[in-house]
Amino acid sequence: MADDGLRDLYQRVILDHARERHGHGIRPGSAASAREVNPTCGDEITLHVYRGDTGSVASIAWEGNGCSISQASASMLSDLIVDLAPDEVDTRIEVFRALMQSKGTMDTEDDAIGDVLEDAVSLAGVSKYVMRIKCAMLPWVALEHACAELAP
To answer: How far apart are CA 64 and CA 110, in angstroms?
Structure first.
């Protein structure tokens, strides 16, 4: 029963982020950008990275079309990537990728994972469906490619 309640909560979080998209809307002044497309389903995302004064990733902004999973994932990502050093951004991408590769076996109640991924942990169930993993990963891959442009 607890699993059903958690699954329902995660679904609500995903739908909330898909409807009220955090970080949605490109603005001028980005330091790097990347565009990713999932040819399987047609989801697409353009993501811009904005730098802070210290070389950190101050924020991201994005635009895109696609399923609620890709849109929610981008929204969640925009909340996670605020004033982070490049190595912290890399860590979040790696942890999210591990979550998506876990096929639903990763312990999402582990505080270390929850602290790193926050709302994005609600996408854990997606990892059970191979065709949906690319939807969830789309903005994260765009961020990875945009950050590669930032490297000295």
So the answer is: 31
Between the CA of residue 95 and those of 25, 33, 152, what are the distances in Å? Answer: 26, 22, 24
If we measure between CA atoms, which residue out of 77, 98, 56 comes closest to residue 142?
77
pTM of the full structure: 0.90
Name the β-bridge partners of 1: none
Contact 77, 120 (CB under 8 A): yes
Which of 8, 6, 38 is closest to 140 using CA atoms?
38
Q: pLDDT, tens digit, for every residue of 86-127?
A: 999 999 999 999 999 988 777 777 667 778 888 888 888 889
Residues 6+ apart with CB under 8 A from 98: 106
For the chain, domains (ranges, CATH) are: 2-150 (3.90.1010.10)
Residue with tokens 């950050």: 147
